[in-house]
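Quick one: structure for this chain?
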Amino acid sequence: MKQVPGWTWIAIAGIFIFSVLMMSQVARAPVDPAISFSEFKKMVSDGDVAEVTLTGENAAVVLKSPITLGGQKVATKDLQTVLPSNGDPDLLRLFEEQGVIVWNHPVETGSNWFLSLLPWIIFIGIYLYIMRRMQGNMMDRFGGRSSSDFLTGSAAKEEKSGRRVTFDDVAGQEQAKKEVAELVEFLKHPEGFKKLGAEPPRGVLLVGPPGTGKTLLAKALAGEAGVNFFNISASEFIEMFVGVGASRVRKMFDEAKKRAPSIIFIDELDAVGRVRGTGLGGGNDEREQTLNQILSEMDGFSGRETVIVLAATNRPDVLDPALLRPGRFDRHVTLELPDKKARKAILQVHTRKVPLAKDVDLDLVSAGCPGFSGADLKNLVNEAAIAAAREGVEEVNMHHFDEMRDRIMMGTVRTLAIQPEEHHRLAVHEAGHTAVAYFLPHADPLYKVTIIPRGRALGGTHLLPTEERHTLDEDYLRDRLAVSLAGRGAEDFFIGNVSSGADDDIKNATKLARAMVSQWGMSDDVGPIDLRQSEEHPFLGREIAQPRRFSEEMSSRVDDAVLKLIREAEARGLDILKTHRPQIELLIEKLEKEETVNWPEIDATLGPKAAKQETA
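Got it. Here's what it folds into:
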């Protein structure tokens, strides 16, 4: 809650003081006295006063006859005076002795009551304004919900989108759409299933890497079926107060049952659904109570409610087994990163409203984005459109897609003052990678090579696989090792020494070689045995040391086998550098001059494909 500003309290204090002063004053202002009180008292003693009208401390005097006062003749009804505030006991006695008629009138407030109340009205108005501001701050703190909604949260609120999402909006996930498509028929016509004794699946777990379209698929299912859709992230169940999450779960399921047929979608289920009772994962009473409530609610379906629970996670390995058993999440639907064909379909969806130039080839764009998720492709289209808008053109061209792809994959171009000697070394390093990748038979195809600094890299050799690989064979991995170490080998061969620029290459090559030996059994000296030294821990999301289950001798054999693979890869790369030295020197010269060399120029510089076949 934000603190009330100091000026607000000063204004309230000022209004309060003003109101007190207003209330303490007589509504009718006192009149200016025509004579002093001592003169008035002398007139009474002399018997000149006929009547006196008292109104508070004001006195209106009526004389028996006109008199001369201060050299001026005074009329009988023009005299006024003010009595002492503490009174005068002798005055009433003089009135009685002289037979003065005394009229005593109460103080008339007239219409000034509103002026007396006005400060309080202003004070109350400011108070209500401050309270509304404080309530608004509370709503901001609790995600835009008022205090009355705190225990229910946004879980019990149905999501209403402006446009209905359908399966046509979900491209590149055909298998996943098939697995959930039959749920549409059940939600539309549940009677046909119930006649045969079939019950709906209690829950469907959508599993896949980030950005593959799990949330979009859930919305499309609700859109195709035309049912109510309740969407919430699992993290919204967790608050600092124990029991709030469980309350929100109850409210959400109760509301969904009332509005059946409906779909409940819980995003990032692993936020509350992690394995209970683990030490490294951390205990949390609120999280575990929320998870228990979800399990209880999913068991509480009677079979008559047409409610399906969808949940999404990219970490199924950390979920509690109680969630995954039949009766809770009966089906597990896996969404994979899209292949080339699927990437093109996704690009077609996201470019519907984007004016494309004639030179844009979505086949080529999709081929150049290996490993991109649906969210990455959407971002690529958006960045390309932004680049076109910055140039002031009316269509998005192919070079916009190429530029933005490089920016997403490698980072923004950096402006660095690179010395000529270092510039030459960069060209030699990248030319080494390029040449070895070009002449090895199992390496990925080349796309381009550049020595323009981008992101954290000073240059890069870009390989684009033409085929989707689901398994990595030994020949391919050995060629990858040779390509990784070829930059360092080229520096040593052409310059005579090496530099720190091979740091990342050595790191990746060592990691790959160790995986080949200790995980995939690709070393004859070690054999097919699991000798990995670390695991990616599901709760920490990173590799941590594990108790070693093999001897020091076996560990030494693994190290020797890793070193042997790396030395063999270095030797293969060096042979190519020696065999094709003239072509590589031409490529180095071209790189120094142009800084970026694309595939057609690489192919023309290094020689025809026949040379590659002979080398193989």
